[in-house]
Amino acid sequence: MDKKEVIKERRYDAPRKKFGGYGLTAFLVLAAAILLIFIFLRIDEFSEVLSTVMRALSPVIIGIIFAYLMNPLMNVFENAMKRFFLKHARKITRAKKFCRVVSLILTMLILVAVISIIIYMLIPELTDTIMGTETTEGLVTILPQQSENLKTWLQDVLNNDSKIAGFAKEALEKGANYLDDFVNNKIIHYTSDILMYIASGVWSVFGIVYDIIIGIIFSVYILLSKETFAGHAKKIVFSIFKRSRANTIVRITKLCHNKFTGAITGKIVDSIIIGVLCFIGMMIMDIPYRLLVSVIVAVTNVIPFFGPYIGGVPSIFLILCADPIKALYFLIFLIVLQQFDCNFLDPKIVGGSIGLSPFWVLFACVVFGALFGLPGMLLGVPGMACVYMIIKEAVEARLKKRGLRTDTDYYIDADSVDEQELVLVDPRLDPIKISPDEYEQKIKEEEHLYDDKDDTDAENEDDKEDNKDE
After folding, report:
1. Each residue's pLDDT tens digit, 60-79
2. Is 373 left (phi over 0), alpha (psi -120 to 50) or beta?
């Protein structure tokens, strides 16, 4: 028996394996259905168990997120060092380990330095904003003055209208009575609850700090052995699925990784540029709180679509307390800046890596934001891009099998397709109309070529194994 027959016998061995696979699939489907019914019947207990598991895994999840965010910068350092050290290294393996460790250290140092610089610059700015300086007044002084001015304005308005004055007086009396009753009678009963909430909040802060520290340690190990983890994942995929399906899963996973990395990296770069431009514009127009407002605008700009509005409202309020005219100037400047970002900068930096229309960007922000909150708004757009890409590839693959064209423009004005003629779709060629018999012949030829290619690959693998054994 030659090698080719052995390979085919190994691949299509006996119907017992086929029926055994069917039995295993039926058992797994039945077990999954029973598990889903059990979860729906005991959803509260399941939610509690799931939250406990998520709390236990939170350091690992934080470590994966940190590693994913630091990986692009680490790759830049590592590739630059490899181009230099691998030319002069005596041992390639040792040189690669050296480049990996040094690039990881540089990435961590840059991350710590950036966070330290931001904190060092923001704390004095926050202190000056709240308490004021020798030349400028802070919010502690400005807010009472603004409230007195508002009270005086309201009194002038109410004095001119007796009906509004009566309603306002009655509302103020009810509010004062409720506040007096709350302070004198009810606040004592809430004291223990307030103390418990404060203690719980302090404990939660310590828990978050602990998770972040452990997560950073996890991220170091993940970045040092990222190829090994990727190899284990591919090994599991190829052991479960057929070769063609496993190759498709690995390819789509790599494309999704590229989309996520490109989207996150591009959005961070875009936000830094917007923050710098905002600071320069505010400095030219002599608008107060320029550093604090620029950081707020840059951080919230990471959120697609809604980010500029989320960061613009508190920024305008801060400037409004100090100078209403400057707040108006800032509002106009922010609108111009965001138009520049939406129409020019963001499409140039992020648009190519996402490949989504504005409708799907808005859809992802609204839906994922409603489901998962702020993390959903941050990761919803690249996640939606991956879902869109997977659905598009699946639809186009089925269209090709049916002998139909894959370009969307063809279906915009098409009310029907020709039932007799088929279109041969080849990514390298233009669509060609052929008869059903010719199409079936083409499909058979392609399947025959794929079978021969798989047999050749299997023979090469067996030859490699035989050489290793020898």
Report:
1. 888 888 888 888 888 888 88
2. left
